[in-house]
Specification:
The protein is α+β, with helices and mostly antiparallel strands. 50% of the residues lie in helices and 20% in strands. The strands form 2 sheets. Strands 1-2-10-7-4-5 form a 6-stranded mixed β-sheet, with no helix packed on it. α4 packs across α5. Keywords: Membrane, Transmembrane, Transmembrane helix.
Length: 301
């Protein structure tokens, strides 16, 4: 037994709380609570769960979890988030090595821009000269044949008027025949809305409206997660430990209120009717969260 486990166990006994009572209070299985007291972290679902379960255990017996984490740091396994700063320092070191190449590029860039500007100016001058020379040539050619061209234009215009008069009737008939029928007005589709009603501690209440169906999907992404869903009458719809990549679905359209418990919100995605739910409480603040979904399928907006 570790010093941390002994400290938690003594606090529990001082409060007169049994492991069964603590299991009901924290929603953590009894065997995991016992593993925490014995310091047997290898039997836990993961390093992240160890810290989350210890935090809930400490709060339930009246201890400050942050003080425990700092005092018994050596007894608690490190998570991936704590190891991240070491990886970040390596990335920063490699970026410093790449800096000289960037400075070299910045020194060469002004020269490239100057050369490009000179080429653009030369091309513009050539284009202006070419246009002026071509314009003068066209004026000389047009001055000698302007009389003949004007007569031919008048004849062409009169012929176009006659032909346009004949074609007007036939083209209007064709357009009338080809005119598409106006589509019938479609019924407006209802828009699903999931609004936050209230939030307290690690519990958030939502209201699902604008739809007559309530289909839930819980998916583990990035690690394992324990989930539970309770119906309106308080009965358990299902509870399961999802492995990374696993998902569980349920049709809750007949329920007026559902309580969803997620043991690890960091690694759990919640979808309602195919749309991903955004946790109202940040996952960094509360790992375990309860979500109450109020639903009345008959009242769509």
């Amino acid at each position: 037994m570790t010093e941390l486990g002994n400290r938690l166990k003594e606090a529990r006994k001082e409060k007169g709380i049994s492991l069964d009572d603590l299991q009901e209070m924290t929603k953590i299985q009894k065997r995991y609570l016992k593993n925490i007291e014995e310091g047997n972290y290898d039997s836990m679902p993961g390093k992240f769960y160890v810290r989350a379960f210890i935090k809930q255990y400490a709060e339930a017996v009246g201890l400050d979890p942050e003080t425990l984490f700092e005092e018994y740091q050596s007894d608690i396994p490190r998570t991936e988030q704590e190891e991240f700063p070491e990886q970040l320092s390596r990335v920063q070191t490699s970026s410093k090595r790449a800096a000289p190449d960037t400075f070299k590029m910045m020194n060469v860039l002004p020269r490239i821009l100057v050369v490009a500007a000179i080429i653009a100016i030369l091309f513009l001058l050539w284009f202006v000269v070419y246009k002026l020379a071509g314009h003068n040539t066209k004026e000389k050619l047009n001055s000698g044949t302007s009389g003949n061209v004007s007569v031919q234009k008048d004849n062409v215009k009169s012929a176009e008027k006659v032909s346009s008069g004949k074609n007007t009737g036939s083209s209007s008939e064709k357009n009338a025949a080809k005119a598409p029928k106006k589509p019938e007005a479609k019924t407006k589709k209802t828009t699903q809305k999931l609004e936050t009603v209230s939030s307290s501690g690690y519990t958030t209440t939502y209201k699902l409206a604008g739809t007559n169906q309530f289909k839930l999907e819980l998916k583990a992404n990035g690690g394992r997660s324990w989930v539970q869903v309770k119906n309106s009458d308080g009965s358990t719809n299902f509870q399961q430990l999802l492995n990374d990549g696993d998902s569980r679905t349920a049709d809750l359209s007949k329920q007026k209120q559902v309580t969803i418990t997620v043991g690890n919100t960091v690694n759990t995605e919640v979808y309602i009717n195919g749309k991903k739910l955004k946790y109202h409480i940040p996952t960094s603040k509360e790992v375990r969260q309860d979500m109450i979904i109020q639903f009345n399928g008959s009242q769509t907006k």
